[in-house]
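Need tokens for this chain, all 138 residues.
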Amino acid sequence: MLISPAYAQDASSAFGSMTQFLPLVLIFAVFYFLLIRPQQQKQKQMKASLSAIKRGDRVVTGGGILGMVSKPPKAADDREIEVEIAPNVRITVLRETISAVIVPQAANDARPVRSAPASGPASGIGAMLKGLFGRKDG
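Here are the structure tokens for all 138 residues:
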């Protein structure tokens, strides 16, 4: 009962070693283009919007507080911004805690303005049903 020694096949060729690392390279490429690169672009855009913050911009802080900038930073390296969260209520927040900058829309924006509902027989459930089903009287 002699067992002959078994020798492994030589896999040290250039093609063999490259196929071992190909899945790792593909996984890294997918992570870079789907996760890392978009996040870097988002951070760059957020940094630019924070550096261009001015009076009248609406901001959202990290804690979820909405407000309007009443006193922008004096210098580029100033970290504090004064935000008005209610009439005559101002708080000072750090620039780093601002999570979003909402620029006010222009006055000539083409968005329709919603008016208050009219009182009378044309308002209420009947008017809503007429609007939904397109029923016209007369």
